[in-house]
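Write out this protein's structure.
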Amino acid sequence: MKHVFIVNPAAGKGRPLKLVPLIRSHCNEHQCEYDIVVTEYPGHATEIAAAKSASGKCRIYSVGGDGTLNEVLNGMAGTGSSLAVIPSGSGNDFIRSIVGRDVPDDIIPATIRGTERLIDYARVNDKYFINIASVGFDAKVAYQTNHFKKLPLISGTVAYILGILNTILISSSEYMELKLDDRVISGETLLIAVGIGKYYGGGINALPDAVIDDGLFDVCCVEAVPKLKILRLFPQYIKGLHASIEGVHLLRGRKVEITAKKPIPLNRDGEIILAEKAVFEIFPEGLPIVVPNFDQTTSSKRYCAV
């Protein structure tokens, strides 16, 4: 099988490009047939993944952050090629649902020798996503966070916290209607997060019970709260301890539809657009994902069951 590494030099303040020599070294050591392609503009990863998959099934590696991973997914979903993740962006959230919260240092060789399993992936409106999509306050936070990530010495988690504080100052809740299978919840809403994975925002455990291959969306719906209460809520939200907070609903379902009275920010794996309606579709066990195979010496860091 051919190994195709799609490297985004704009992610992670340039870190993906620095990994290229390591990738070459490990591929040569494992005698892999491989190709390394560096992206040149936004959306290029989607074009590369589509072109490589069209020429035959291969293992496509996303070398970058969650935005790069989303671009790669949208190029290869449904082709039969498998998706591998070399996390080197500022957040690296999706991979945490595979290997646990702390990503091991030997992720490159472990992924090259990894094995494949089928997981869920999804679509919201016209684009696929693999981790979490959200609307409302949290999408506004993601927009603000993207600006802070570009600053030197700012980690993904710190950027997210700064994004929260800045968003509290400038935003308010929105009236939304959430349809989840046969259930309807409506009213003034702070945020709704819909996902397959557990983490976003640089390690924020928004959907602590999410399972990546159960065929179900996990949904977190937070009712509108006063701005000062947001400051008390988000430390629990970050740790995944928000289920018991009044006004927080953790739900599961297969069909999800969110409607607002006006276009509001929609965050799809880090990409922000404006939408008045978000319609979600899940593809159960439709995506071959590469699970890293760590050495016995790092058995404590092996695949963490979700």
